[in-house]
Amino acid sequence: MDTITITIASKLSADEREVHLYYDADTKLWTMDSTVPKYFRKALRQGWTPVKQYVYDDGTICGMVLTAPEKSVTIRNTAKKQMSDEQMRNLFSDDDEL
Fold first, then answer.
1. C-alpha distances in angstroms, 82 versus 28, 53, 89?
2. 65 near 51, Cβ under 8 Å?
């Protein structure tokens, strides 16, 4: 499948950049529509398939639409685990044998 290229005349400001993720239950595919280079480059490195790209007049890529299989996205808890008091005592006890 060829990537569609669309030329954009005006530069995007930082406030206009965004990322959208969509999941299609019928095809079991994720679609990412991103104008944040950090995220569309990361998706490319992870093997996502480019469908469409947006470029400025000078040829610089400013956005992409990419797809990936269902298991490519993982939603996880970002809270760090806290150690219990007992784990802390065991970690810092002086009578550890090596």
1. 35, 43, 13
2. yes
